[in-house]
Amino acid sequence: MCRFVFSICLFIPGICFSQIGDTTWLRDWNPSFIRIGTDISRLVQLALPANRNSFSATAILDTDQYFIVFETGKVNTYRNEPHFTYKMNGQYYSLGVEKNVMKYDPKRNVFSIGMRYNWSQAQDEIRYFQLNQTYGDQSVTVHNPSVKSNWLSFIAHLNIRIVRNLYMGYVLQLKTALATSGFDKLVTYDIPGYGRHRKNATLEKNTTVGFNYYVYYTFPWREKVVPVKIRR
Amino acid sequence: MRVIVLIFFVGLWGCNEIEDCALNPYSDLLSISMTPINSGNTIRFDSIVVQKIGKIDSIDNAVSLTNLKIPLSPRDTSLYVTFYTDTASYFFGLGYQVQSLIYELDCEVAIRYHGLHIETQNIPEINLTASEIDNRFFTNHVSLRF
After folding, report:
1. Alpha-carbon distance A39 to A155, whole Å?
2. For residue B71, which residues of chain A lie inside 8 Å, CB to CB?
3. Residues A172 and A215: beta-carbon distance below 8 Å
4. Coarse DSSP helix, strand, coil percentages of chain B, rounded to the nearest 5 percent
5. Nearest CA in chain B to A125
6. Which of A17-21, A77-81, B35-39 has the highest mean pLDDT?
7. Taking CB atoms and an 8 Å limit, are B101 and A138 in contact across chains?
8. ipTM of the complex
């Protein structure tokens, strides 16, 4: 009987049984929802006086136990320091895949791990007054018209279902393998989506950790069965 | 137990890295060393003239000079130095790039002079020993032998 059912499922597109070890679940590769969200911490920054304001939007598409995640954001920073003023504005993008390790949760909470590729583009500028006993004092303005960066991030993503289609959760990111180009006369200080470019003037910050809190709303178009763990 | 935890957090707070602006390794002083080609000889200059600065007043004809420090201009990308002796004049032109960077938010903007290269010269022997002015790695940047 089991062999008959297994053979029938071979002819049903997009659905098949998968068997790994002694656990069996029904695989469903067709997307069933899209989840749209935003970073709450960035919204809080918009309301408070700060040297940074930013906005982000995230879209998550499910396929079987995996999620395809796309995030984009816009960041503006303005630093008015005792010796200089620095401003940066730019955009960042992130695309990756995450695997749901809580796929059996009947409440549809999600804890996923994955990896993303990130890239950004920004313009920045610094203004300062330079004192020079030999050649004379001067006001200096240095501008980078286009700073491009890319990096990888490893993700731990927790998403808790609050009520019906509303989810809230955090994303912990380990950002690494940073590559930056386009800064010639000014070493860029802030990279949108990444954070500070350098630990100080002499040390580049090739690895950093990010923690963000998100709120999502899910738009489903079909009901997806939560897999049931069957142990033989 | 509470005391231990308190000491731990105080110690952790004390470990916060605070950058000292004086530790900025970038400067504008180009260090030039001068040695005679024939050991035992001494080098004497009538004058040394730096473009946009003028004659260096501290040069004394009677004193043999072995090292000279000249500040680079943040507005330009080249420096020309001419050495006058009683019999000849020697010169070299140094090209470089200027880069601004934030050392720390509380410090002044640091200026990094890098990409040092010799553009023109008629020195008998000239050797560029550094690619940038960074006090952590280089104490001398240009070696001249007359």
Report:
1. 15
2. 132, 134-135
3. no
4. 10, 45, 45
5. B100
6. A77-81
7. no
8. 0.75
